[in-house]
What we know:
Helices cover 7% and strands 58% of the residues. It is mainly beta. Strands 1, 2, 3, 4, 5, 6, 7, 8, 9, 10, 11, 12 and 13 form a 13-stranded mixed sheet that branches. It is globular, with a radius of gyration of 18 Å.
Amino acid sequence: MTDKVxxxxxxxxxxxxxxxxxxxxxxxxxxxxxxxxxxxxxxDSYDTIPVMISERLLDVTENYTGMLICVNGQFRSYNxxxxxxxxxxxxxFAREVEFVGRLEExxxxxxxxxxxxICKEPIYRKxxxxxxxxxxxxxxxxxYGKSDYIPCICWGRNARFADHFRVGERCAIWGRIQSRxxxxxxxEEHVEKRVAFxxxxxxxxxxxxxxxxxxxxxxEDEDSLISCQPDKTVL
Length: 235
């Protein structure tokens, strides 16, 4: 049962470690620590992705800054209470970690597969330049009755397709994890720079429809290939 559930949330990221370990939490005597990994994009920019690693996988007292790392695991979420409300916090939970000598141009440095359920009405919109975008929130089941809530962003034809999804329908998504800077207004005088994380969707498939809907559909968008409150969860 556990192996089947893990298959619905698969992530691989490869990049440069750009921070030292910071303590996150402990579960049954096992400590978990965070590092940031800078993952290259095709467009010569990069995403900075937080990775959670058990002290049983790596010596967390060492400094790995500047080293290249490959992480296989899951994209997970939890709620952090701040400013009188819950904030969704996302990170890659490492199951396997390997250091690599270099990143080949052909390396797939950032890929994710999710199989979950639409848990919020899609939000479809257009940018001032006319580009179509749709935001999805996907609930991905975890063992022991827990779930992760993953924000996903679709582009172009994928956005038009996703706009017709309904809450409760099952959806499979392929894409990449991306980081995005934004400014958060704290009060009338203060603004704080923050980073949001989401899945940029390259392909999606509707695999579990509600009664009265058509059969399963798959959609892939060339544009997205180029550009490439929730319930409580427990880590």
